Amino acid sequence: MFFRWLKRYMPRSLYARAALILAVPMIVVLLAVSVAFLQRHLEDVTKQMTLTVIRELQLIASVAERAETQQEFIARARPLLGALQIRVRFVDADRVPAEDRRSRVDYTGHVVIETLHESLPATRAVVLENTREATIYVTTGLGPVELLFDRRRLSPAAPHQLIVTMLFFAVLMTWISFLYMRNQLRPIMRLAAAADAFGHGNAVPYTPSGATEVRVAGHAFLDMRNRIERQIEQRTLMLSGVSHDMRTPLTRMRLTLAMMDEDEAAPLLQDVDEMQGLLDAFLDFARNASEGVPERVDPVALVTQAVADAQRAGHAVELVDSEGEGEMMLRPLDIRRAVENLIGNAVRYGNRAEVSLALTPRFLRIRVEDDGPGIPADQRTEAVKPFSRLDPARNQNRGSGVGLGLAIVADTARAHGGALRLGESGRLGGLCADIVIGR
């Protein structure tokens, strides 16, 4: 459950994930080392140094404890003050601070203050605002005493320097690692971009580079792309020849039937028209949604025009909803052919069709719904395969085909980096076909 929740917030790109893998351990190590250093090493050393100073202060107090005046106290303690490098003077009670004070950047000041109050109960206030000098106010029988000595005797000097140095080198090494990682990931990203462009029908220039494994994958991709391009070229040439060779006899047959008796020629003309339609369907599928060059078009205007053309052709279709506006990179002829195929299927197997469109910053969705019998859920995967005919489910009496309509639409959607989704229409009760393309 935790990993599923965490997966939603993980970055998707390889570079971001690699950066996260590099940065998280570095941050964890820095935090762990910093906490361990501050809590164990630095605080323990500070406490030991503070206890040493407390013992010196107790020695001074024991020597001068029998003094009856402040001058006598100073005189008795003077031999020790020079050796211990401590300055002592009596102050008025109103000059004693009401509370302890320390600098905000003093990482060990709280340890010094706590230790002094615990081990030297006579301590009234501790002032550590000066980084070079510490001041302690102690209560005696002769009045408050101010003790001044070097701040470095209570804790290590400038403990933050170690942390700053550690952070500096951590940032420096992380930056160097990022540069190296970016250079290593760049060939993979170039390979991914070339593969993605080829999947959308664009052959961009690509030269394998990078590590040995990436070069092997790059050469394999180039070999695969060359084989596919040769096959597409050979198939296109073959189908172009077939189209020319078959259209010529079909035209001769149509001319011959036109000179025959109308009643006798009508069934044969219908067969010729059906053969012409099947030939056009084969050629549309053979193009594999790869005609034309992607260009920036307005999908709303494109779909609106396709619906208007279908209405002029006598089809019961209407555009019921259109959300969003803008332009995106599409092959207009291929998208138009796909929409026309969906509308044709909808009015062939149903009485009417409704088209809706949604254009968001993330995706384009073109939806065609009809009131026909629909396609059962367990047959929808089979329905988009080439030459698949589900006429018993789609009411064969309303029309016929070669089973390429949905296959052409699916290929068009895939060529644009999208997909064709089939479902049940909640509005009309028939088939709901969605062309979804990411932006």
From TrEMBL:
Q: What class of enzyme is it?
A: transferase
Q: Which Pfam families would you find in this protein's record?
A: HAMP, HATPase_c, HisKA
Q: Which controlled-vocabulary keywords does the entry list?
A: ATP-binding, Cell inner membrane, Cell membrane, Kinase, Membrane, Nucleotide-binding, Phosphoprotein, Transferase, Transmembrane, Transmembrane helix, Two-component regulatory system
Question: Which spans are transmembrane here?
Answer: 162-181
PROSITE patterns noted in UniProt: HAMP, HIS_KIN
Where does this protein chiefly localize? membrane
InterPro entries attached to this UniProt entry: 2C_sensor_his_kinase, HAMP_dom, HATPase_C_sf, HATPase_dom, His_kinase_dom, HisK_dim/P_dom, HisK_dim/P_sf, Sig_transdc_His_kin-like_C
What is a single molecular function from GO for this protein? ATP binding
Gene3D superfamilies assigned to the protein according to its UniProt record, in alphabetical order = 1.10.287.130, Histidine kinase-like ATPase, C-terminal domain
Keyword Calcium present in the record's keywords: the answer is no
**Which compartment or compartments is the protein found in?**
Cell inner membrane
SMART domains on file: HAMP (SM00304), HATPase_c (SM00387), HisKA (SM00388)
- Looking at the record, the residues that make up the HAMP domain are 182-233
Catalytic reaction equation(s): ATP + protein L-histidine = ADP + protein N-phospho-L-histidine
* Annotated Histidine kinase domain residues: 241-439
Q: How does it sit in the membrane?
A: Multi-pass membrane protein
- Its Enzyme Commission number? 2.7.13.3
In its UniProt entry, what is this protein called? Answer: histidine kinase
